[in-house]
Write a structure and sequence with these properties.
mainly alpha, 5 helices, 40% helix, 0% strand, elongated
Length: 126
């Protein structure tokens, strides 16, 4: 899924103005973001035709933090260019460590009986 220059013109006012010597246009970055959202790939797996993945990721991260992406996607949906709802939930089990006491597992309270009657506390019959 990529948007055209005409479609991009409808949301261009939502994106920051490019200044200085930039290697990628906002349209290229936005299309790369759409590609990752559609295919669910890692940033490093972004096809080379989009440009340097790290540059795209850095710009996307800045835009997300200040609400630029929210405004752009709202505008795209309002103008019926795209109809998507972006939600992400991620949980990596390798980073969630719980102490065994925190699992609410039953405690091991069963006592082992000793083989010796004297140690076990049983009375001897004479």
């Amino acid at each position: 899924m990529e948007i055209t220059s005409a479609q991009f013109a409808q949301i261009e006012h939502c994106l920051p103005r490019q200044r200085g010597n930039v290697s990628l246009t906002n349209l290229q970055v936005f299309n790369a973001i759409l590609y990752v959202a559609e295919h669910g790939c890692k940033w490093r797996g972004l096809p080379k035709r989009f440009g340097n993945w790290h540059t795209i990721y850095t710009r996307m991260n800045r835009w997300a933090k200040v609400g630029v992406l929210d405004r752009a996607f709202e505008e795209l949906q309002r103008t019926q260019v795209v109809r998507i709802k972006m939600e992400a939930v991620s949980l990596d089990s390798t980073s969630v460590k719980v102490h065994p006491d925190g699992t609410e597992a039953p405690k091991k309270t069963v006592r082992r009986l000793s083989a010796s009657p004297a140690v076990a506390g049983t009375a001897k019959l004479h």
